[in-house]
Amino acid sequence: MFNTEFLDIPALDSANGTVSLPGSKSISNRVLLLAALSQGTTTIHDLLDSDDTRVMLAGLQQLGCRITPSNVAPGQPLQITGIDGFLPNNARGQLFLGNAGTAMRPLTAALAVLGGDFEMTGVPRMYERPIGDLVDALRQLGCAIDYLKDEGFPPLKIGQPDFSQLGDAPIQVRGDVSSQFLTSLLMALPLLATDRDITIEVVGELISKPYIHITLELLARFGIAVKNDNWQRFVIPAGSRYQSPGSIHVEADASSASYFIALGAITADATEQNSIKILGVGKDSIQGDIRFIEAAQAMGAQVESGPNWLQVSRGVWPLKAIDLDCNHIPDAAMTLGVMALYANGTTTLRNIASWRVKETDRIAAMAIELRKLGATVEEGADYIRITPPASKQAWKAASIHTYDDHRVAMCFSLAAFNPAKLPVRIEDPKCVAKTFPDYFEALFSLCETERERIPVICIDGPTASGKGTIAAEVAKALGYQLLDSGALYRITGLAASRAGLALDESSEETIAEMALEMPVRFDAQQRVWLGDEDISLAIRSEEAGMNASRVSALPAVRSALVDLQLAFQHLPGLVADGRDMGTVIFPHAPLKVYLWASAQCRAERRYKQLISKGISANISTLLADLEARDARDMNRATAPLKPAEDSLQLDSSQMTIEEVVAQVLSWWQERQLFGRA
Ligand SMILES: Nc1ncnc2c1ncn2[C@@H]1O[C@H](COP(=O)(O)OP(=O)(O)OP(=O)(O)O)[C@@H](O)[C@H]1O
Ligand SMILES: Nc1ccn([C@H]2C[C@H](O)[C@@H](COP(=O)(O)O)O2)c(=O)n1
Fold this sequence. Notes:
By secondary structure, this protein is α/β, with parallel strands linked by helices. It is 35% helix and 19% strand. The strands form nine sheets. It has a five-stranded parallel β-sheet with strand order 27-31-26-32-33. It has a four-stranded mixed β-sheet with strand order 3-16-18-17. It has a four-stranded mixed β-sheet with strand order 5-6-4-15, covered by helices on one side. The site of ligand LCLUPRNS has 15 residues, from helix 14, helix 16 and helix 21.
């Protein structure tokens, strides 16, 4: 996951390949609650691991469900032993449900029916998301629910219900604000339907019927056969009791599929037809958002489908503008808003009033952000109308505010395919964790762009100037890859000296051949592997540094390592540290920093570094070694250490690490187009 302040996506050209999607959020949280209420143990496969499922799992654990493992583990099923319709005696506590509507609403209904003493809390945005219609419906039954802050909104206090007045009259609930209210009642009221039918009557037009369809399908899997009377009345039969189905698979998220369906529809290059294969969900999915396919097809996408996969490619181009009632695909429809940027006219998305009460006011958010890109946007209470930028020149490089809304972040990433070839900045990219923590990694694994567009920040300088430290911090702040080129020379020096080779011209060709074939690997923790040996520590000694300096003076060794270094240039960008990053390996890098500090200062830093690791050291020896290394690195014939002509020089002798990082990031920021008029 990109845990950065923002993520800059370079302009993208094409995409191709296969993506496996995470499980559906709607199905995951429903299955978790139903399993928790059931008799027996349910084994759940392919459960989504996200913010929303995590708060649900934590809540269910607080209610006394046995859950193993306690959190979703990749590739491992999760088992829940349910409470069989009864809470433990004196059940009480505070449930923090973040911004997860799929946890707050159904859990409120279930706990209000089960009784106990609970406070239902969340993040500030949750306190702006209405719940009054659900509370009103539950109060009709005799449930005890109080508002702890504003009337009609969480946080809530739930107490013991009194069902003594419960008659046969239908329970009424509004259907036109959020279908989650009806879903919540449908999942909670089987707990009350032990000896009588319970009827729920929808008041007003029922929105988002596909989500109710998911609820009904899953209830059936857990033994509850609800009678659906034309989406207006739902009868839960007497004698209902939740029963675990034993094992259940969660479909991949059809709303998440929308970004990759759109990607397939907009990606192509002039010469070859690209396509995106999506695994985990097919046309026969129970999720309503699968009908996004029809909308994408109407805009020109070509879609093929099998039982558990989709394959999407570009059909017509530009895409066709559409005028669509999106009531049946409220979440995925946001993706159409960004596809509209590539259409041949004005696209209107109608009947989307529910967008206003989602993670953010999505109509307002989409309008503001689409305008930043150069689109003309009209918004109404329940519609949005989007006209793409009038020409290539009318596109703007935008910094997209994401409003803590995962779908805003994901759909706007597709604006990186703009014809003006401008980058797009996504603010707070980690908000995708709500449903798809690795969304950007999945996107980048499919996308291609010209090498020159993948930005490289070069940080060159003498030993112990702080290059490695600063490069790692800058890469972390930007979510970029990291190339520690010195490590490659250190590994070569280590391998050559272990092979008993002289580290000079006499072994040049042999060392170069070795360098070409070294099984080197850097893992996610920045550990360095040579085959299956972790050599992270071995290459960090002063001797290894000196050996690296020796082999690095050999031209054949330098050329042997070029391709390995270039291969680090991945999306979304790279920070490379070394001696010749800016002068030789990445001569077109948009930012080159030459970082230095006085020899005395560097020797002192190295001294402290070694002592802190428990390695004994002597400042004057370190100073002499470092000056010898400087001399060799600066005076060799090939790629000597020197500032690139277009580099910015930074003397860090009197600066802290934080100040240096801030300076480099500020230079980087100055080079960005975002937000410029
Ligand atoms: N501006 C700074 N102020 C104080 N200490 C620093 C500063 N920059 C780096 N250091 C410290 O100096 C030591 C050496 O830094 P670092 O290993 O990043 O240097 P380097 O240039 O990558 O060295 P080498 O080329 O030998 O790999 C580290 O302990 C680091 O924390
Ligand atoms: N781009 C590079 C990186 C490193 N070297 C050589 C010269 C250094 O003394 C040695 C070790 O590098 P360090 O890990 O200290 O950065 O490797 C080079 O020639 N070119």
